[in-house]
Structure formats: structure tokens, C-alpha cells
Amino acid sequence: MFAFLLSEPVIAQYIYTDKMAVFTVIDDGNTYRVKCRVSESVDHSRKLQRITNQLRLQSIDLIGNCIVLQSIDLPFEDRGALFQAFVDNTSLRYSADVEKIEASALSLCGKQRCIEFSCKKSDFRVNERYLGQDFDMANILYMNFRRTKDIAGACALLQYTSSAPNQLIPTELQFLNGSAVIDPEISALLKINPSYRLENSLYATDSILQEYVNSIASSENDVCPFGKMIISKILFTSSKATSKQGFYDDYIFYLSQLSDLWYGMLQFVATHRDSSSFVGFEEATVFDVIGALPVVLNPFGMRIGDKSDYFNLATRAFAEEDFETALENLQNEINFNGITTENLNLTGACYRLLDQPARALAYLLLAYYLDSDTKFVKGNIVLCLQMLNYPKTDELSSFFLNGTSTDPWSENQIMNLKK
Prior knowledge:
The chain has 419 residues and is an alpha+beta fold. The chain has helices at 45-71, 80-90, 128-131, 137-148, 151-160, 165-176, 184-190, 197-203, 207-218, 225-238, 244-255, 261-271, 286-292, 309-319, 323-337, 341-353, 357-370, 377-387, 393-402, 408-418; strands at 2-3, 11-17, 21-28, 31-38, 95-96, 102-103, 107-109, 112-120, 124-126. Among the domains are: 2-135, no CATH class; 305-419, Alpha Horseshoe (Serine Threonine Protein Phosphatase 5, Tetratricopeptide repeat), CATH 1.25.40.10. The termini are far apart.
């Protein structure tokens, strides 16, 4: 144990919230102070004394966490957004000379009670092993998001770490299916006809759905670009035909602000899309929209189908290398029966073999979002990106080979490209 002294005065402020109170931890250079705004009601003196003691112990722990977080070598100065996640996911505990921890009298802050604890920096001691510990901040933030399931946790994860696709995609999908929350209105929209939102937006008028779309689009959602990108996907899938292009433009804009490997690849695919045969949203089918505007659809707003005779005819034509006939049947399969990983992957394979990699990727990536373990899809994706001269094909290939399970055919195709 030793006294931890900062070499230079540093002013910092961190917020932490639990069921007991909202704590504001302040480092003013010479003193640590913790302001506590009590959340619980206090109706008798015994409970008041108990809460005061609990607040004191929690304040000591929070000061210790503040010191340790400040000591970690991170590539940024503002660590405020990390504090809640750091405290909740490290479970570090500290000791201090209780006589040197001063407490103010309880006072009223509006309708709540407040108290402040403070101590000189020289009176607070932190175990040396805490200061030298190598904390996995990426894992801390990912575990924090899994606990909170909110957009603030996801934004912190993306802002402060370099997340791999096998973390990013499941995170995005939780917002698209409604198991993680951006906004209550968005959560309500996602519950409306989940399997038919895209079809209803193209072929029918759902006034309730459009009210939600308009309200969400006009509201100020103060979230990071990752959150705004997800919102644009949800609104694109649900909006009426005349509004879809605007939401697609929003999607491209927010996608361009994400710099990691996965979303950089999606931006490349979106900007190299093949929409030459697209007839416009008013006349478009589900099959058309998938192919012309890649990776913008929310798969949880689409009908998931089963194999039908159209798919069987398509597989037979594909085996005979009659890719045009296969595509005719796949178009009917998707429009009449819904999407599956198999029909999307087969559509992508047909377009790839017809030397249309940009259109192929639209179907392949949607299949990947439905199930990243879809047989053949990783190999088809890499082959198409190579055909388009995507500059980071090697990096994505390495992820498919080393960061996730890959089927033998896909692995063989990727390895042949790397030779």
C-alpha cells in the first residue's frame, strides 16, 4: 500500500449512478470530493445513519476507481464516459483513513437529500497492484453494453475501442431487433408488424407506422454516428416509398463517419452499388430494393420465408450453370415467400458468376447479417470484393479465417486469393 500522488494537478469530474444515489467525483488537484444525491427516501433516523455509512463506503471506492482510471495509459484525455463502465465491471475496493474522510451535513437538493465526502489526496491510499493492472478496456465496455443494452453503452464501446466485426454486428443487430434500446418510440415502431414492415411500406399504407417514422425522423436523437446509422436503417425499412431515398442518403452519411474495418467495407459496397436497373421505389419489389440499395435494410423488418418450388428450380438451374433462369426463380422465391440465408446466398453467387459483384454483395451481406455462419457466404463475399478491387480484402479475409468460424469451401476460396 502507498500514497498515490499525481505529479501535476489534474482537474477531473466523473459521474456514477446506482440505486442508492447519483455520485459526482471531483478531483480538484489537491482534494477528492464526492457529491452524493440520494435516490432513496429517508423516513427515519436509523435509515439515515445506515445510508450515510453506505454512501461513505461507496464514495471511498469511487475515489479509488477515479485514481486508477486516471493512471491507465489510454489514447484520449476525456475518460468521463468510461467511469460508470469501469466501476461496474472491475469491482475494485479500497480503504482509507476514515477519520480523514470529512462529511458535510445532509441537506436538501430540491426534493432529494445530498451529502458530500472529501479527503486530501495524501490521505488516500491505493493498492499498487491496482495501478499496474492491465485492464481490458474493450471487454469492460462490451460487458457494460451487454448489461445496459442501450445506445450510450454501444457508443462508448465504439468510441473508445477498436471492436472486431464479431462484436459490432451482434451489437447492431440487438438494436435492429429491439432487444437493445435507442429510444422508446423506436422500440414501439419495431414491434409493429415486424415481418412485414418493408412489404407494407412498398405495397400498402400503414398510417400508424408512418406516424412513428415521421415522429422519429423529426426528433433530435442525440446519439453517436453508429446510433444514427442504425436509426436510418430502421426508418428506411419502414418508411413509405417516397421517403426512402432520403433515409438511404442519411445512412450513407452516417456510415461514412464509422472508420473500422467492417463499416468501412459496407461504405465501399454502398458507394459501388449497381442500381442501373432499379425502376424506382414506387415500382420496386423486395428483390429489387435488396439488390439496388445494399446493406441498408433491417432484416428484422422483413419476412423470413421457407424453401419453395421456386428455390428448388433455382438450385437445379444453378447446377446446370443457367444463372439467368436461377435468378428468375430466386426473384419469385424472395418476393413471394420471403428471404432466407440460402436464397440470398444463391442469388449472390449467381450475380458473381455473371460478373456482377456489386449486385451480388447486396444479397450476400444481407445473408451474413441474418446468419454469419451461412455456408459459402464468406467465400462469396471475399471473391466479390476482390473483383471490385476493394483495398482491404486481405484484412477482411484474415478476420474470416482467424476471427470467426468459416466453412471449408469459403476457407479454400479465401486461401487461394491469398496465395
